[in-house]
Amino acid sequence: MELATLLAALEQEPKHIYSSDALNMHSSITALAYDSRKVVEGGLFIAVPGTHTDGQRFLGEAVRRGATAALGDALQGQSAPLPYIEVADVRIALANLACAFYEYPAAHLCTIGVTGTDGKTTTSNLISHLLEATGHRTGLMTTANFKLGGQEWENTTRQSTLEALEVQQMLRQCCDAGVTHAVIEATSHGLELQRVRGCNFDIGVVTNITHEHLDFHKTLAAYRRAKARLFEMLDPQRDKGIGSRPTAILNHDDSSYEILKPYCSVPILDYGIDTPASVRAVDLQLSANSTSFRVIFPDAECHVETPLVGRFNVSNCLAAIATAYSQGVPPADIAQGLATVTGVAGRMESIDEGQSFSVVVDYAHTPDSLTKVLGTLRPVTQGKLLIVFGSAGERDIQKRPIMGRIAAEMTDFFVITDEDPRDEDREQILREIASGAEVQGKREGKDFLCIADRRKAIEIALKRAKAGDTVLLAGKGHEQSIIIGREKLPWDDRRVAREVLRESL
Ligand SMILES: CC(=O)N[C@H]1[C@@H](OP(=O)(O)OP(=O)(O)OC[C@H]2O[C@@H](n3ccc(=O)[nH]c3=O)[C@H](O)[C@@H]2O)O[C@H](CO)[C@@H](O)[C@@H]1O[C@H](C)C(=O)N[C@@H](C)C(=O)N[C@H](CCC(=O)O)C(=O)O
Ligand SMILES: Nc1ncnc2c1ncn2[C@@H]1O[C@H](COP(=O)(O)OP(=O)(O)OP(=O)(O)O)[C@@H](O)[C@H]1O
């Protein structure tokens, strides 16, 4: 694509162009890259500041790899070794360039953004499944997986909402594959850092807003504000000519309802279990292996049976049901679709090697999700409830003692362990979690253990379990790696649990 065409899409006048004499506006840009290691001959390098370093430090590498030009914020006291386009906001620029480079794919798709503290991945998968089951072709981008026209693969990036470049590239692939609906997990980071700019969302969905990522957003108000961006992006006048109906799907049971309502200028379709809502679940039957409930719509009813377990999954189902209903999918088809749903990898996943107790791997890593998962497991556990968990390094430190308190209040025994300590002191993280348990009167050595090595922690918990007990391995879910220092080591809670069970049986 011609450089001049790309720059016209910036929506901001370049503040300055260094070495402009060497820049040919008619040159054809072969690719965009925000990582110098991925620059190709004839490409445009977008230098983004990060938490560990700044893309501007890699202008030299961009030159060596044959970049035509670079673009970024004001240069930090260095000269530009290649033509450099200075802009006021590099993240907006990255998103706008990506939209233009991939020829505005969101204009041709019904785009659905899913946000919330917990349940985004599950709900996104449920929406995709429901739409597929009712004859639509979907694309999907979540923390756990990607889907494109019937093909599915794992998300191994350890990032939930990818950068705008990958998001727009995937949307282009969706268009080319004949996809009609694209479901995008939109995290608060993703919304704040412009990763989903240009997605032209038709539908915004929220699961809930509780306590998470205060490291990044600093206050709960700022975190909520970031989530609200998704709903501000919905436009009642948006008509892509594909029959999509702009709608905000809000959770009437959650405090986010009142927070987000003022930001919605499109029709709201709310869902709920505890409170009167347009799409409401009643007569819940929760068991250890399945869930059934009745859904009351404004003009119909249907009965739902699903293999998903836990009350929180009824809420996730309702978000997906309301989304499908808002786009005209009949309730009877919705009920049929949910009957065939399979759970998301690493969410309430049972590990069965023939042992006499239950082992469940789950991705709960926030206070709210931990509370809900333990609340789901307690009534189906005859014996003791044990948990192995931690809290990630370089992420929301305030939640650590809260997680410790929840384990103290809701389990019979727990082992605090590593969950991606990153560059932090791993023992210090464990101590911060433990402090919340100690306030509840729990004592290390008697009521709980602190064992940084996650494999050892799992071994100890599984060896301690007796018939009828449940051991929850929380926080890593589907993840295939554990980050210690700057190193990403291979890891899988499910594999480790199976290995330990096989060794000890
Ligand atoms: C904390 C954070 O937001 N990190 C993001 C950030 O990484 P970083 O700050 O470490 O980047 P950096 O290493 O300082 O590098 C800065 C820039 O220089 C570039 N670089 C770096 C090295 C090099 O040799 N050449 C080069 O060009 C990098 O590509 C980057 O663009 O910039 C990277 C590239 O844009 C992102 O991939 C990365 O997301 C990481 C993977 C991440 O974990 N982010 C988390 C916090 C996140 O976004 N989480 C949300 C929420 C999840 C949830 O709700 O649970 C998510 O959507 O995933
Ligand atoms: N609606 C919900 N409310 C509270 N907890 C939930 C809900 N749905 C799922 N959970 C719990 O949260 C964990 C993560 O679920 P899921 O991956 O769907 O959420 P997520 O919002 O995508 O998480 P992340 O932001 O880390 O990607 C699950 O393993 C489960 O323990």
Automatic annotation (TrEMBL):
Pathway: Cell wall biogenesis; peptidoglycan biosynthesis
Chain positions recorded as UDP-N-acetyl-alpha-D-muramoyl-L-alanyl-D-glutamate binding sites: 36, 159-161, 187, 195
Gene Ontology CC entries for this record: cytoplasm
Mur ligase C-terminal domain span: 346-477
Subcellular location: Cytoplasm
Amino-acid positions noted as binding ATP in the UniProt annotation, renumbered to this chain: 116-122
PTM text: Carboxylation is probably crucial for Mg(2+) binding and, consequently, for the gamma-phosphate positioning of ATP.
Highest taxon in the source lineage: Bacteria
Keyword presence, 4Fe-4S: no
Record domain Mur ligase central: where: 114-324
EC number: 6.3.2.-
Domain Mur ligase N-terminal catalytic: 29-102
InterPro entries: Mur-like_cat_sf, Mur_ligase_C, Mur_ligase_C_dom_sf, Mur_ligase_cen, Mur_ligase_N, MurE/MurF_N, UDP-N-AcMur-Glu-dNH2Pim_ligase
Keyword terms, alphabetized: ATP-binding, Cell cycle, Cell division, Cell shape, Cell wall biogenesis/degradation, Cytoplasm, Ligase, Magnesium, Nucleotide-binding, Peptidoglycan synthesis
N6-carboxylysine, modified sites: 227
Function: Catalyzes the addition of an amino acid to the nucleotide precursor UDP-N-acetylmuramoyl-L-alanyl-D-glutamate (UMAG) in the biosynthesis of bacterial cell-wall peptidoglycan.
NCBIfam families: murE, PRK00139.1-2, PRK00139.1-4
Protein name: UDP-N-acetylmuramyl-tripeptide synthetase
Originating species: Reticulibacter mediterranei
Lineage summary: Bacteria, Bacillati, Chloroflexota, Ktedonobacteria, Ktedonobacterales
Gene: murE
